Queue: 2 jobs
Job 1
Amino acid sequence: MNGTENAFTVPKGREDRVKGVYDCGDGYSMTVCSSCDISDFSEIKEKYLSLGYETVCENAIGKNRYLTCVLGDKLLHVYYIGEAGEIRAVTGRNDIIPSLFDRENPTGSVRPSCTMMPMSYTQASGGGQCIIFRLTDGTFFVMDGGWSGEAYTLYDTLKSLNRADGEASGPIVISGWFLSHGHIDHTGCIYKFAEVFGKEVTVGAVFCNDASVEQMTPNYVSYYMSTKNLTEKVLPFFRDENGNRTRLMKVHTGQKLTFGGAEFEVLFTHEDLLSITVKNFNDLCTVIKATVGGTTFFLTADASKVELPALMAEVEEAHLKCEFCQVGHHGADRGYTPLYPAVGAKYYLYPNSYRDYHRDLETNAYEWVKYVVDNAEELYLAEEYSYTFDLPYTAGTAKKTRVI
């Protein structure tokens, strides 16, 4: 335990099952109990609801069960992992943004789409990623954004997509901006975008899962996604649809965010690593599954051979199946080959340059790249052109637009 207050009470008689209490960052902690079954989860759920906690969202994936509930300024996110026989209970302050959990989740009249935005890839290290969903209510969901210089490309792309249906364009509304992890090639954009274009758009919410400092090795300095940085350098520039300052929310495994006629399901966060010390932000990625326009997307960000085996051990393979898959870590090192046949995608979003794609393909050690290339019906790189896929997607109809 790292001094983080823990408000979760283990059911009476099960105190000896506590495996540990872990610091999740931002004042949240996780209690893990082993040798549990689904009846333990049901008992915990019944107990906290009887105490007056209100359900925000519930979810089930195979044998796994998930519940987020709140009482005043308190939050409890508890879930049961069937394969591991574990109860994991995250407690902390109530930062829930109700607009992200619209239970009715009405479908609007706008045809949804997914756009992979190109990166400039001028950096020697490559990297960078931005995926944009246009939702049926005409608003947008943005994943990451890329380097800081990509802020201008993002704004231009949003403007173009905002009038893609030929109607007079209204204000740009980003219902949710999701940051997968702390590397600057994924988070740099939001800082510059907020500073330059913050007054030109509406942002309903920013969400991510920031790790604890203790979970990073001491020599890891670049901490770009910290809650402190986002709160001080991004949120002051943004306003939501009511004119209030945009809020930041910490997401947890198993939560299903529903808005704009779409679903964004959190499959894995660093919390599931149970505070093992890692050397790289790529091992702290939040992995999500998106369902937009009836089309499914597996979005790994830079998750690789640390997180993905753990995810696959805890989430049944049938639930991983998606039509689109974003290739992890730009196709570069630290990939995890078994993920790709498990997802079984037809279409692959490959966020990297032509140069690095061919480098990766020629590297014999990168067997995951070879699998993707051999099995993709369509594969798209994120250099020079944006690719927009109207949803539901028909093979061969991607719209190609030169941007860079």
Note: The chain has nine helices and 22 strands.
Job 2
Amino acid sequence: MKYEFQDFLINKVFNHFFENQEANIFKSFYIKRKNIEKMLDSGMVLGSHTENHYYLSNIPHEIVKTEIESGKEFLKQFTDKKIFAYPYGGPGSYNNKIVNYVKRNYDFSFVFNPKDITKKNLVDECLLNRYDCNSFKFGNCFKIK
């Protein structure tokens, strides 16, 4: 889907099913500042993403930069670590121009490649392997019985 239509379609579907409930959904399902601070205090390392989770290789580079910068600016209020994860992260979701931009602005970045990082595959600090959180037992959304 062209990125120009993504927001339009998502808003249309969201409003159809959840009319006037955006504030409640945001409050219920998005992480809160105190939770971010608790995660950092517990020793977790957080990285940024993008604002709208676009498939970066499908959007104009100026929008790519804005998306990446907005995530970095948000995270700055919590940490000085410069870590990035490409949205979707698989082959085709980023390109060399995007990787070069990320390299100039981050110390490390991660792509979706469900393999451990080893000395053998540690070739580029801006193309590190990562697992999808849904690969883990408690990464999926489900009710605990």
Note: The chain has five helices and three strands.
